[in-house]
Amino acid sequence: MINAPDIDDPANRSTAVLTFGAVEVFRNSRFPVWVFDIDRSRVVWANDPALEVWAATSAEELLARDLSTDMSTSVRGRLQQYQSGFGNGVHFDEQWTIFPRGNPRSLLCRFRGCVLDDGRMAMLCEAQAINPDDLNLLRSSQALLYTAVMVTTYSTSGECTYANPAARRAFPMAEQAALSRFKNADLRAILSREPDSDAEGTYLSDVATSRGVRKHEVEIRQSYDPLEGRRNFLVTEMDVTEQEAAKREMAVLATSDALTGLRNRTYLASAAPAFLAAAARHGKVAALLLLDIDRFKFVNDTLGHAAGDTLLQEITRRLSEALPETALLSRLGGDEFCCLLAEEEGERAFLRVCTSILRQLRRPMLVDNNDLSVSASIGLSISENGMTTFDELLRKADLALFDAKGNGGNAVRAFRPELAERSHRFLLVDTELREALTRNRLELFYQPRVSFKTGKIVAAEALIRLNSPTGSLVLPGEFIPIAEATGRIASIGRWVLREAVRHLVTLREQGIGINLSVNVSPKQFADPSFLSLLRQVRPTLDGVQGDIELEITENVLVETDRRLQRVLMQISDLGYKLAIDDFGTAYSNLASLTRYPISCIKIDRSLISHKDFRLLVTGVMTIARTFGARIVAEGVETETQRLWLEKHHCDEFQGFLFSKPVPFAELQRMLGAER
Ligand code: C2E
Ligand code: MG
Ligand code: MG
């Protein structure tokens, strides 16, 4: 057989290294024999059959040839490797193709060391021509010689019985080819067993090589030793170090956040099961903490995104400081951070961590020469006996976070089951609202306001209703708070205003000049587009024909916000009237309200229906009068209430005693009947 340079075979080691002087014994051999100076890529000695093989006209001509030009780098490398191996008295049998004058000639060669006169190691080549019938064999062995794949075989006793050139490059010393080079213990165990087909497979292992520890993809096949006929292992290896590193790097990129360097949601979701299982194993309670920076959008909008980024990086640093080392922190996106924690103490410990986070964040941060102090809201969900999944923890923490935000932020809330019910209802109502807006299922009812002086309708309050597809009327108390929480109040508010203006115009066309009042949610005042809408839909408001009055709750007005003051002035300048709704419920600094252009004050129904209403309403009316505005009593249900209010110079009333809120057509009918 060809090409089996058994570097591990001790028999090969007995071959003595020749000296250059001794090669003359081959002068008369019938086989081609020559000496090759590896360092200089020249033949330095050749017998006659060798001259013929090399197609040389004379020894001088052959010795003058520079063979380096035809030599590939891989061949050169292999020869240099042999050169160092020869010193140990090893020889190599190999199939070898030379190209004398450009024509290929395949030979079976035995290479061994030959020390030149100057002491350098050269190579003695004894050749034998190959039968052209064996061409396929030739090609396959050629492939084995040149491939970058490392091929080795192992006997049942775990000895390396063959290594192709690529393998010999990786494991130049015999002991390096031993099984101990595999760092993967499973792999070593498999290769130490009796070979059978169960052992076959592909493995990834760290391997000690001449280039240090490398990652190899190792394939094991069961095979037969062609010489001994015994089972052996055929091991092929590919160096996949770079590919594996690239794969790992890509995995890191895909699972981390470029801005903060934290892991992202993908990573957290994949790492969570192991984290939760480990916590349960160690008898710890696990929790998920969801954190959202309060009013972060404000920073982005006013200082720019670069400042926002810097702030997020600083927040990341503070969070890492406040969290225990075992915590798994990630950024979910935007200003939302998520963290998995495990503590022996459970809830108490988690709350302590949260408090410390909030404290860390409140410390001023220098961003773009601005001293910023941030607050955050935190939702906390705790794993029940380690049985809660990551998704469930995240969902629950999200509900708790929503609760924390709803209370103005800078707060920590733990999940409670009621939150889930509430959110379920939220979702249902919000969906219904969205559909109601697009399918015209909203309707304005009107509750008349009656003048004590004339007994006639002088105004009406627009009160929104939702016509549910089931045929029932849904009242605003049910859906307005939800619309405020979800932000849908903006589009509802726009619809209400347009509809009320449309009705006002209709009444004017019929010569009816009463005021229509519209309830405005506090959220709408914060929305800059609200003012432009008011400007856009405004009919000519002149107070002669009846105007639109905006009802604002008392607690909106007590906010000492400068911007709000300006907005209210602008609204009033546009010709809209302003009414204070639910008056007497906010216990506010009423004096501060006098700076607004208020046309009407509506005393809250809770005061009118109170058993001590005489006492309460007297007090409230005294204050209301200081505004110089009309006083309206809401929720008047009894004749007693009406008479008392009339006697005490209340201006108008509205309530079930006169009429419930009615559809617009009904209001028109009532107004028509009065004239
Ligand atoms: P509100 O502005 O204080 O409206 C008065 C509420 O008291 C109305 O309830 C009305 O039906 C009810 N009411 C009037 N007279 C009586 C009475 O004699 N007895 C009793 N028990 N109740 C009486 P409604 O229509 O359910 O509206 C509730 C609240 O929803 C309103 O309180 C207002 O704050 C809000 N709302 C109604 N429509 C809108 C709207 O278009 N936009 C906004 N943002 N809020 C609205
Ligand atoms: Mg109202
Ligand atoms: Mg009211």
Describe the structure.
There is one protein chain. This protein has 675 residues and is of the alpha/beta class. The chain has four domains: 2-137, Beta-Lactamase, CATH 3.30.450.20; 147-245, Beta-Lactamase, CATH 3.30.450.20; 260-415, Alpha-Beta Plaits, CATH 3.30.70.270; 433-674, TIM Barrel, CATH 3.20.20. The protein is built from 23 helices and 28 strands. Helix 12 (390-406) links the parallel strand 17 (376-382) and strand 18. The model is unreliable at 1-14 (pLDDT under 50). The structure holds ligand C2E and magnesium ion (MG) (2 copies). One magnesium ion (MG) is lined by residues 581-582, 602, 604, 634.
Topology:
Layout: E1 18-19, E2 33-37, E3 42-46, H1 48-53, H2 59-64, H3 73-86, E4 92-98, E5 105-115, E6 121-129, H4 135-146, E7 150-154, E8 160-163, H5 165-170, H6 185-191, E9 201-209, E10 212-224, E11 231-239, H7 241-254, H8 265-281, E12 285-293, H9 296-303, H10 305-322, E13 328-333, E14 336-343, H11 347-362, E15 365-367, E16 370-372, E17 376-382, H12 390-406, E18 412-414, H13 417-438, E19 442-451, E20 457-467, E21 473-474, H14 476-486, H15 489-509, E22 515-519, H16 522-525, H17 528-537, E23 548-553, H18 554-557, H19 562-573, E24 577-583, E25 600-603, H20 605-608, H21 613-625, E26 630-633, H22 639-647, E27 652-653, E28 662-663, H23 664-674
Bound molecules: ligand C2E and magnesium ion (2 copies).
Residues 581-582, 602, 604, 634 line the site of one magnesium ion.
